Amino acid sequence: MRWLLLSLALMIGSVQSQDAPKASPPAKGDAKGDAKAKTDTENKQAVAAQLPPVVNITKAEKLELKGQSEQPQKHKQAFYESPEFWVAAFTGLLVLVTTYLVHYTKKLWVSTKDLVDDTAGTTRLELRPYVGPEILFFTEKEFQSSLVREPPRRLKLCIKNFGKTPAYSVTVFGGITKEPMDATVRPTFGAPIFNGQVIYPDQRCEIELDLSGPSVSYDSTKFWVYGKIDYFDPLSKMDWAFEFCRKYLGKNSFTPDGTYNNETGVSHPS
Q: How far is CA 239 from CA 43, 194, 265, in A?
């Protein structure tokens, strides 16, 4: 029995001795082993640093979240901050400016046309013929004769073209009266005393008036000479009529009188 217990104790002890780590003294190549272990450790760290799957996944998630957070901000932008708004605003402004320029150009064209028409009208008025009476005078003071004691009674009307264009078909009517002219009644005329002539610019024509009717002379104190001058204006294609009335004041002095001193014109029939 004792031998059996002793054998059992020895078996248990041998088993424990085999399981315990054996302490061995450091061998020759232990330094190399430490270095190799250190190198293996660094290689493992390098591999871990090169392949950080967790970090990559985290960054991707962060980027995805950032893009999702920007999406609502884009929809919250004010309408005037979008490029489409400024394009539309610039287009509208361009349309307004173009419309104004078209309106201004049309207005300028109309003004230019009116100015050209006014200039043409002014030019015609400046260049057209103007035929009217220049002077009336008795010739008694000009008459000198040793054979005839009393000079003849002659009254002359001098007409002139004051314009810059020849006057065609110049026809003159005239008369003499000792009574004042009635402004409400236009005078009537007989045969012309000057008929169908051409008078050039600055040209004068003397016409002797008929004194066989009323007895008037240089020494008379008061009478009236009235008449009408018709002529054709080739520049403006107008027929003009100049009516006149002159009152005699004595001593070869005449002055316009009444409402007959005016000119009217009508278009010449083509």
A: 124, 17, 5
Contacts of 134 (CB under 8 A, 6+ apart): 158, 159, 160, 204
Write the CA distances from 84 to 75, 80, 90, 96, integer angstroms. 14, 9, 10, 18
| Angstrom distance (rounded) from CA 77 to CA 261 | 83
Structure tokens that stand for 132 in this block? 């009217």
Contact 257, 246 (CB under 8 A): yes
The answer regarding whether domain 131-267 maps to CATH 2.60.40 reads yes
- DSSP conformation letters of 152-206: P--EEEEEEE-SSS-EEEEEEEEEEESSPPPTTS-----S-SEEEEEE-TT-EEE
How far is 143 from 153, CA to CA, in rounded Å?
10
pTM (predicted TM-score):
0.57
Q: Which residues contact 95 (CB under 8 A, 6 or more apart)?
A: none
Q: What is the pLDDT along the chain (270 residues), one digit of tens a residue?
A: 555 566 556 666 554 555 555 555 554 555 455 555 555 555 555 444 454 554 444 444 444 444 455 555 555 667 677 788 888 888 999 999 999 999 889 888 888 888 887 777 778 788 999 999 999 999 876 655 566 566 667 899 999 999 999 999 999 999 998 888 776 777 888 899 999 999 999 999 999 998 887 888 888 888 999 999 999 999 889 999 999 999 999 888 999 987 788 899 999 886
Residue 263 DSSP code: E
